[in-house]
């Protein structure tokens, strides 16, 4: 499983192979030069021949070589660190790019079923954790490996038997490191998941802070947060506990190895099997040999955390995408607006059918209103028209073309859409209004804003149309944000228009004026109006009354009232008996 994950991560390193090769070369040079220093130190010690017998000239030459080795080692490490940071930051940037692009390719069902906070945690927090692990790994892992093999080579050259003792004792460190790494990875993955859960909860509570205060739910929210926070604390403690075992455990093993080597080497020097200088070099190499195990095991535990975060990020990147348009998909252009819904059935979940055997024929230029109680399928029908979801059975056609056989882009370009839930991006008012059609002229933009009764409040803002608003409209009122969204839809010049509770946040007086503007822009265009306020759909050419996923009544306003059916009941409930 982990091998497959590493193989997937490796794909993102392909563009950095040159930097990776240079980093390995710098690691090799750095480790080799640093390993040459203990050898030179032994040479310097052997320049002391006895009392009053010191080869000062030879000792100075050796000390100059040591200084040069130390200088070039530092330079190689500096270059290596720059390269490693470039690799790590570049790889994580590419993974973040892939994750962000994935958001636009995911089916709406995925975004509906997964908390936004968890997605945010994967793209931001998990990517940061992975980056930190990579930087540490590259900085210490390569030099550590080279150091281990290099010290073994020099130790075997100095004394074969002593070198073999070191090799025989090495598996102790490897066993300890592997034991800790396995447990660290498991707890790090749990920690990352709970962190995503907490991020999602905080994101949700901040977004709904007004509702929480209105219903005095602060204490309950704090209690729920504390439960998640406690869960994160437990997971973090377990992950930290196992990772903190690394250093003391490996140090104990390595110090034991060093003590054995020192005792054996001391006896060897007393028996004349090696010089004092060789013993000094050998002990220096023994110290250098054990040091990478401490560093590498620390790196391994950090990498376990990084891999756990990378797994969550890659799982998101590899989520099943929205089914792509077929290669022979048609492009809708200048469509007349004739829509035919033929015996469609649809459900969000397998166990609960929502729309059954639904049929509808809309002529070009007709204005279709959809009314009915909450949950009857009004907005679902709009989702199917826009291909946010595909029908399970039956078909929907625009101008005689099955929408599953046309490109999503051209289909959605043909519709202008205003939803009850407004969305504005961070940027200027102007940037938000021309989002659908950046080629719109200043005059067209201002004229549309006036038609939608947005111009007056826009001009009262500090910089007018160039006023920068924060995420989702910032301090603008719900009604003002909706007016901007209506203006944006009008400026996109769609062939068809969908209004899903488009005036729900607007006062009644402004609503009347907006309706007049809608009538002007919708003149000759097919339009769908979803509304709970039945006063907004009285002028519609055809009103579809939906209940439990089926059309139970249809006709214009007067016809439906005269039948004294379900529409009449809805109208009566809103207007207290005024049936006209």
Would you mind describing this structure in some detail?
Helix content is 63%, strand content 11%. By secondary structure, the chain is of the alpha/beta class. The protein folds into two domains: 2-317, ABC transporter transmembrane region fold, CATH 1.20.1560; 339-575, Rossmann fold, CATH 3.40.50. The strands form four sheets. The protein has a six-stranded mixed β-sheet. The two termini are 69 Å apart.
Name some characteristics of this structure:
ABC transporter transmembrane region fold, 580 residues, six-stranded mixed sheet, Rossmann fold, 19 helices, four-stranded antiparallel sheet, alpha/beta, 2 domains
List the helices and strands and how they pair.
Layout: H1 2-10, H2 17-46, E1 48-50, E2 53-54, H3 56-105, H4 108-113, H5 116-158, H6 160-207, H7 209-214, H8 218-244, H9 246-270, H10 276-317, E3 339-346, E4 355-362, E5 367-371, H11 378-385, E6 393-398, E7 401-402, H12 408-414, E8 415-418, E9 427-428, H13 429-433, H14 442-451, H15 455-459, E10 468-469, H16 478-491, E11 496-500, H17 508-521, E12 526-530, E13 542-547, E14 550-555, H18 557-562, H19 566-575
Parallel strand pairs: 5-12, 5-13, 8-11, 11-12
Antiparallel strand pairs: 1-2, 3-4, 3-6, 6-7, 9-10, 13-14
